[in-house]
Give the backbone structure.
Amino acid sequence: MNRALYIIGIVLSVVFIGVCGYYIAEYQQERFSYILSSSYYSSYDYASGNLTAITEEAGLVSLFFFLFFITADIMGLVKVKRKTMKVMGIIGLCISGIFLLWNLAMLAEPGAMSFDEVGGGFVFYALIMLAFSIVGLVQSVQFAKYGRTTTRKSTDLLDS
């Protein structure tokens, strides 16, 4: 079960990087077309309706990814009984919590904080979760291979 969860995590990390790139490019394109319009020079309102809609949509889509990675970290803490996974799960939960709060702050006021400002950070988060998912997959395989047998001594394992 955990191996499948970590494989899905690897795939979703790569997908999240692509989703962030898509929404950043879409936001930049919409901002550029807004700058070229004549209404940009007549007011100080930099957040048009389309820009806030893009930010809200990107925030809601990102929320799905954050909730998945939080669930994967919790499942890793519960199911895999290895020290490395405990540490990685706690670090992953802390990082996910910080980025989830950042996403919720963006969703609370999409006109003040745009997705192109936070999207780079979300790409960084996706890279961290990609690394954690790969380590989680390796640890899950090691736990399934060695963790359930009682014939090995605990000193034979690198991570007990």
